[in-house]
Amino acid sequence: MNEISDLLFLSVLGVTFIAGAAYLVFFFSQNIQVRKIARMILVVSGILQTLYIVSRYMLVGHTPITSQHEAVVFFAWSTTWAYLSFRWRYTVKNFGTLVTILIFSLLLISSVSSRDITPLVPALQSWWLPVHAGVSIIAYGFLSLAFCGGIMYLLQERELKSKRFGYFFSRFPSLESLDQLNSHCLTTGFVFLTLGIVTGSIWARQAWGTYWQWDPKETWSLITWFIYLVQIHQRFTVGWRGKRGAVMAIVGFAAVIFTLWGVTYLLGGAHSYAG
Amino acid sequence: MPGEKILLLGVNHKTTPIEIREKMALSDGYEEPLTALKKIPGCRECYLLSTCNRVELLVVVEPHVEVEEEIITFLFGARVSPEECRQYLYIHYDEDAVHHLFMVAASLDSMVVGEAQILGQLKEAYRYAAQFDCTGPLLNKFLHKSFSVAKRVRTETGIGSSAVSISYAAVQLAEKIFGNLRGKKVMLIGAGEMAELAAEHLVGQGVASVVVANRTLERALDLAKKFNGSAVSMDELVQQLEQVDIVISSTGATGLIIHKQDVKSVMRARRNKPIFFIDIAVPRDLDPKLIDIDNVYLYDIDDLSSVVEINKYERDKEAVKAVRIVDEETLKFRKWYQGMAVTPTIRDLRAKVDAISRLELDRSLARMPHVNGADRKALEKMVGAISSRILHDPLNYLKSESCTGRDNSDMKVEIIRSLFRLDNGDDGK
């Protein structure tokens, strides 16, 4: 099982790398045929990632989401499928390139962290684990898409405002489609984030006897949640869109990353496990 | 036409700042300037082109007459000093003038190289010149040639394929901001031609509705009808800004008509929906500071031309090819033009008649072996005398001064050349 799992992880890395390279080739050549191939490879990568997670599940005996390595692979997986599901509904020109690079970077980070199997602490042995952690990380997947969209928005907006058109101008999508992407991913991501916090809170009540204990991870999740809440509220009431929306998506994602890594390494607490 | 000159004189977007061009743009149609131009002594044929990027004059001048100064004063009026004028003006003679006009017609001299509008503008200008009886044989030929050069450039090079006019550039930008233009609303401020053209492009992309605001409501209504839109008065402008997504402004107003504060105040009501301003008016209608507002995009005519630069590189390669065609056609035209002169015509006519008599003489002599040296000489002399006598009148006709005092030698050359079929067909006819 161990060998199969390792082999799968290597193939995930390899295939995603090829997908990223193909997307880059598409980005520079703008050849539609190349994009089709790149997308196919990314789908293959998504399937392989799923298989890897399944193999890891069989290997460790519980949902593989507790170690640093597992969480990041899961993150990459959710970004991949969030993108593919999004892609199914809208097309945003050249978005795939940036996203695939992000997915590959995540996988690269996961590859350098320890793949050792650590037994699950008793507190985590519950079916709440896949629900709470899974839902939270799916939220991260969508929020990372919003982040990519935000970066593209800012770059494109700068070119339009400064009226100096560089290499990216013709290759980047329209502002409106990026803003739409932002809105779609934020709302979806926010729903999952809320679910993650609610399920976590219920689980905490069961495991620790209290809904909320101001553990650093909880606190930061709440801060992240508030950042997104403000943003979504403002968007639907006074129309915080465009540049401000893009900046907020990036700020929100920074908070997500900090919740995921910063808290574990800097602050510790009940959510810091094997990682 | 010994000594007769083709003179081309003008200003364009490259040589002259907008402020100067503004002072000379001949906005009240062609009739008045053309009739004035015709009256300049020494000016035999004339033609005038006036677009928003260039004003150009083409004059066929009588030999030994200086009209440069007069035409410059005509162009600029008294508003600009002659020294200053010369600094902005380009003046081409004869072959250079031909080359320049071909370049203009082929859209190689345009702000947006390869755009197709210029040819239409050229044709329109020619129609006016012909209508007011300003053009003659030389300019007729010249301008028609320029149209066919433009056509040749268009079919033989790819210059028009990615060609983008200013209005096309506006559409391109709008698509970068809005993605799909379906469902977007456009407002035209001022009912200028350029705005109309841009609106046409936008409507072609599926824009939902068009609102026209104009100083005179009548003209606004006319234009609105064309796009199935509605007309509003200038007082409703700011109010309209809440609704529309794309604003194209092209009024002749001397000051700004939309200020930063106006737009800032409607952004909240718009819930920050992006708004795209295109200012093609000279002088500008819209406050340049609009760009500082979030979700507001403002482009004036110079910015639009830089947008067009994006696909310039590919077109540059095609432009090299196109310039070669223009060079080639200029040479051809020169050949024709020189042929038009009296002296070469005389030479050609003589050569032709001589060749015919030589040929016939040789043929006959070949059948008459008994003719000896002295008789042969006499025969040759006779044939020579006959051809000289025949040529005498046509040559006199060519060289004669016309009775009206007006030099119409080009017409006479034309007649002689076609009568004797002296053109060897290298000008395409």
Q: Can you lay out the helices and strands and say which pair or pack?
A:
The complex is a heterodimer of chains A (275) and B (429).
Chain A: H1 2-29, H2 32-60, H3 68-89, H4 95-112, H5 128-162, H6 175-208, H7 216-237, H8 243-267
Chain B: E1 5-12, H1 18-24, H2 31-38, E2 43-50, E3 54-61, H3 68-76, H4 82-88, E4 90-93, H5 94-105, H6 117-131, H7 137-156, H8 166-178, E5 185-189, H9 193-204, E6 209-213, H10 217-226, E7 230-232, H11 237-240, E8 246-249, H12 260-267, E9 275-279, E10 296-300, H13 301-308, H14 312-339, H15 342-366, H16 373-399, H17 409-419
Helix pairs in contact in B: 5-7, 5-14, 6-7, 7-14, 8-9, 8-13, 15-16, 16-17
Please provide a written account of the structure.
The complex is a heterodimer of chains A (275) and B (429). With 275 residues, chain A is mainly alpha-helical. Chain A has one domain (62-267). Chain A contains eight helices and no strands. Chain A has helices spanning 2-29, 32-60, 68-89, 95-112, 128-162, 175-208, 216-237, 243-267. Chain B has 429 residues and is of the alpha/beta class. Chain B has three domains: 5-162, Beta Polymerase, domain 2 (2-Layer Sandwich); 172-310, NAD(P)-binding Rossmann-like Domain (Rossmann fold), CATH 3.40.50.720; 342-419, no CATH class. In chain B, 52% of the residues lie in helices and 13% in strands. Chain B has 17 helices and ten strands. Chain B has a six-stranded parallel β-sheet. In chain B, β6, α10 and β7 (230-232) form a beta-alpha-beta unit. In chain B, α6 packs antiparallel against α7 and α16 runs antiparallel to α17. The longest helix of chain B has 28 residues, at 312-339. The A-B interface holds A 156, 160-161, 163-165, 169-170, 173-177, 180, 238-244 and B 173, 175-180, 268, 270-274, 291, 294-295, 297, 299, 303, 306-307, 309-310.
